[in-house]
Amino acid sequence: MSAPSREFDLEAIRADFPILSRMLDPDTPMIYLDGGATSQRPRPVIDAEVAYLTHDNAAVKRGAHRMAGAATDAYEGARERVADFLGAPSPDEVVFTRNATEALNLVAHSLGSGDDSTPDHLRVREGDEILVTEMEHHANLVPWQELARRTGAHLRWIPMADDFTLDLTELSSLVTERTRVIAFTHQSNVLGTINPVERLVEAARSVDALTVLDAAQSAPHMPFDVTALGVDLVALSGHKMLGPTGIGVLWGRFELLAQMPPFLTGGSMIEMVQMEHSTYAEPPARFEAGTPPISQAVGLAAACDYLDALGMNRIAAHEQALTQQALTGLAGIDGVRIIGPAASAQRTGAVSFDIAGRHPHDVGQVLDSLGLEVRVGHHCAWPLHRRFGLHGTTRASFSVHTTAAEVEAFVSGVAHTVEFFGSFS
């Protein structure tokens, strides 16, 4: 069940985040602009995890005592809450993982480890093709590279266009009868580009290929419904959506999960064990070997409550306005090159830039001296940066608690950084 709605009062929202009052030194308040890497947690999320740990902490499932029952109820209740947040038809389609990276590895490993009992569309074999994009985070690239290496499949990719969107002009030739998987990010963690899910799903369905969506950057920032998107499998991370670290989600259509072999094996994911062989439980237990991240799941459910109460449409509008403000401000600074599309409904969230002749690590240090906490480097997207001739970029990413005044301070900080470096030229 969704959380009751609340007013989108930015001052009240900021009061929910204890860490935002931190001073980096006596004269420097913190301006946190790195939510794309790890978001901060509001008090309700912190309180939910603490309440579980101080009241219900126990091993889930199988225990006959009341504490085990309470812990199991909390854990499975969190699954139901996450399913509701994602628009999933059933909580049995929600698998808890450590993060989006593990969720994507789970899928890639499973598709390469089936046997003759596994349906053909869930087995990647020699000569098959896996299609990704040139803008992928390493988490949605390296697992597919490894799957291709293990199986003899061919890895192909959709290239980037010069306007920082996908070049889909050759999509019909990239998607062939040998394509088994199309894996792509919903929103680029570097560019802010929102990819055309409907068109890619349509291309995959034309050849009965699976679609795997990396939603780590999109699910926390916009209305998100797995049923409406039409994809087959989705990965996301709790720590990017105001939740704890150590918790992620793989959502998949139940009929697919029920036919996929497990990724990790051991306790909790079995149906029956003999010395010679074992059989495996139905999803989601099949993919949750060992002791799961219980308190983290409880915290993630609270994060879903928090986001839903604010309203995903209002969050998206707020962050898009901040993105427009940042792009307009940066465009007026000589020597700054924005790495990403122009402001539109198809880009939001992350604003990356390059200062000519300056390493992003140096840029980040100057901004940090002003209290501006941004991300620097290649952001786990080396191929994307190479495509545009960059060693790295500096990235600001906005959240529900970011203010227009903070974005103004960011733009001013970048202008100051350019002037600072210019004084050494």
Automatic annotation (TrEMBL):
Q: Which domain of life is it from?
A: Bacteria
Which GO terms are recorded in the biological process aspect for this UniProt protein?
Answer: cysteine metabolic process
Question: Aminotransferase class V domain: which residues?
Answer: 31-410
Catalysis: reaction(s): (sulfur carrier)-H + L-cysteine = (sulfur carrier)-SH + L-alanine
Keyword Signal attached: no
Family listed: Belongs to the class-V pyridoxal-phosphate-dependent aminotransferase family. Csd subfamily.
Swiss-Prot/TrEMBL cofactor(s): pyridoxal 5'-phosphate
Read off the PROSITE patterns from this record: AA_TRANSFER_CLASS_5 (PS00595)
Q: Name one GO molecular function term.
A: cysteine desulfurase activity
SUPFAM superfamilies found in the cross-reference section: PLP-dependent transferases
Annotated EC:
2.8.1.7
Keyword Transferase in annotation: yes
Task of the protein = Catalyzes the removal of elemental sulfur and selenium atoms from L-cysteine, L-cystine, L-selenocysteine, and L-selenocystine to produce L-alanine.
Q: Which named protein is this? A: Cysteine desulfurase
Write the record's keywords in alphabetical order, separated by commas.
Pyridoxal phosphate, Transferase
